[in-house]
């Protein structure tokens, strides 16, 4: 199956990155959101990130301009639905995702492949509520999308071979690499990464280290590009908590219990970089630990 048009639902952190790489690879992209402000911010950010790639001589100015010309931002979800491949990239809340798939349903083309960029929710369950579980796949990008090489592809119980292969061809065209994961809570990357982050929060909660020493220890002691608390702020503490809850509920093992301190930060609305406060405060020139 030949894919040339992509609909992306959700213009947040992941949606704008996905639109960026798809447009750069030559796909015609429709980016939809319910919030005009989010769309405006997404387009401005894509422009900024493309400029950065131009200035580092990763792409030419012509490639940047033609990528931008291939992106249409819209409040109309119908336009994102009437494409060859839809990628839902909304917030990590199952009810929101079900609602989006319901709104898309009347607008999908008969051949449209439906995918979700969910970082943890069951693909089989999301697919079962649509009219096309066989054409449904988990299409999970990593943040920042333009930089990270991996895409996890997750087949639900009903996903057919043609759908999987069509999405694999898209990953190839993006110049990225796919890892196949079975449809179990949080798949591969987040099954391993987010409990590590949660453990870092316990390490802080129990006073084993402070924010700086925990991040320093993992950067210099394990060669991680970012410390776990810095990474948690980067991913979003609400997303980290949502993933821990999916693991805890889905695998019913106490080893996945979310750290109460992580819950407290989320309750405070201190969600990390996107709200300018998390384990670090980003409101000044330099990030400063909040504990
Ligand atoms: N768009 C385009 N390019 C970007 C970019 C963006 N948003 N952000 C960074 N870059 C580029 C820079 O231009 C730079 O390119 P060159 O190497 O060509 O010069 C390169 O990325 C490195 O950037 P910087 O030098 O500015 O910064 P850095 O060296 O500190 O690296 C980082 C930044 C790549 C984000 C690095 O810190 C890193 O790899 N962090 C870990 C990220 C990670 O683990 N992501 C996975 C999160 S988990 C996830 O996403 C799954 C989930 O579902 C929660």
Automatic annotation (TrEMBL):
Domain 3-hydroxyacyl-CoA dehydrogenase NAD binding: 5-183
Alphabetical GO biological process terms: fatty acid metabolic process
A single GO molecular function term of this UniProt record: oxidoreductase activity, acting on the CH-OH group of donors, NAD or NADP as acceptor
Domain 3-hydroxyacyl-CoA dehydrogenase C-terminal, first and last residues per copy: 187-282
Pfam families associated with the record: 3HCDH, 3HCDH_N
Residue positions binding NAD(+): 10-15, 33, 92, 97, 119, 143, 274
Record's keyword terms, sorted: NAD, Oxidoreductase
Site, as annotated: Important for catalytic activity: 140
Superkingdom per UniProt: Bacteria
NAD recorded as keyword: yes
The UniProt record lists the keyword Chloroplast: no
InterPro entries given in the database record: 3-OHacyl-CoA_DH, 3-OHacyl-CoA_DH_CS, 3-OHacyl-CoA_DH_NAD-bd, 3HC_DH_C, 6-PGluconate_DH-like_C_sf, 6PGD_dom2, NAD(P)-bd_dom_sf
Family (UniProt): Belongs to the 3-hydroxyacyl-CoA dehydrogenase family.
Protein's name in the database: 3-hydroxyacyl-CoA dehydrogenase
Organism expressing this protein natively: Salipiger pallidus
């Amino acid at each position: 199956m030949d894919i040339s048009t992509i609909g992306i639902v959700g213009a947040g952190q992941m949606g704008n990155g996905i639109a960026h790489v798809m447009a750069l690879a030559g796909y015609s992209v429709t980016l939809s959101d319910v919030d005009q402000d989010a769309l405006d911010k997404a387009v401005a950010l894509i422009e900024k990130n493309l400029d950065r790639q131009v200035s580092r001589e990763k792409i030419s100015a012509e490639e940047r301009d033609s990528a931008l010309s291939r992106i249409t931002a819209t409040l109309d979800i119908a336009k994102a639905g009437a494409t060859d491949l839809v990628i839902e990239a909304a917030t990590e809340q199952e009810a929101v995702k079900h609602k989006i798939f319901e709104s898309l349903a009347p607008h999908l083309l008969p051949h449209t492949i439906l995918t979700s960029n969910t970082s943890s929710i069951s693909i089989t369950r999301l697919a079962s509520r649509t009219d096309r579980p066989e054409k449904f796949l988990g299409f999970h990008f990593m943040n920042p999308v333009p930089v990270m090489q991996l895409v996890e592809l997750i087949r639900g119980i009903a996903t057919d071979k043609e759908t999987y292969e069509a999405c694999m061809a898209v990953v190839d065209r993006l110049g990225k690499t796919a890892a196949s994961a079975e449809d179990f809570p949080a798949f591969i990357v987040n099954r391993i990464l987010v409990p590590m982050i949660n453990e870092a929060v316990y390490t802080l909660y129990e006073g084993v280290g402070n924010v700086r020493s925990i991040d320093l220890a993992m950067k210099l002691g394990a060669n991680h590009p970012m410390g776990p608390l810095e990474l948690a702020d980067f991913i979003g503490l609400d997303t980290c908590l949502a993933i821990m809850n999916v693991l805890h509920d889905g695998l019913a093992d106490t080893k996945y219990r979310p750290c109460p301190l992580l819950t407290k930060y989320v309750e405070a609305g201190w969600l990390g970089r996107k709200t300018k406060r998390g384990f670090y405060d980003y409101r000044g020139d330099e990030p400063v630990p909040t504990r």
